Amino acid sequence: MRRIDDKIYRELKPFVSIVGYKNQEDYYFESHSINKRDEGYVMGVGSPLTVECISEIASSFSVEFSMEPHGCTPSNLLYFDNRVGHQKYIWYNPPRKRMMYFTQSLNIEDGEYCVPGIIYVVNGEKLNVYAFKGKKPKNQLFKAPYFNVTDAAVCIGRAEVTYPSNPSFNDFFKYWEDKFWLTEFSHLGRNPIKGNLVLVTKKSKEKFDEEVLLLSDITLKDLLNEKESDK
């Protein structure tokens, strides 16, 4: 441990110190330059923390430690904003078969079921889902025909999924999709379809009937214009 400390102090030199202040309502941050003196390093007079200083600190972190997805953008990515405090990602899956799990109380057997096209919206730590008709999303969206969903908002269950280190966009997508699909479907907020969701789900092993979908009051244009970012 001593050798590691020696290496750090030999190769890295202090250049700035950030000091934060707060009261019951506000925060204030100052940056202090670190100056070399004969007796060692001395912290200089503070000044308000600037965007340039924050950017310099942020850029010093290697992508190795990035928590936000990066790299080539997949063809199914519709929108992303990775600014700190504004993170939002929208992507879609075309219709396909999915492995689905259910609690015993629903009396639906676990297995692969056909599902319609789905749009995922990750806003911070929240996940919303919508359905669409056809192979690619158009402006008109529909309510997601699933349990554990109320007004598009997903009730995240207890699926044991680990967030990837240094994630690509596809890694990020898989993480959130697994959190949704690997959780047992257990409860219904509001009926999201025309008909009985249990019966419709049971019948969708070979084909999903898009005619049971109910229109959503949110359109794809709304999502891309961030009109539902606070939901």
Automatic annotation (TrEMBL):
This is PRTRC genetic system protein B. InterPro entries: Prok-E2_D (IPR032787).
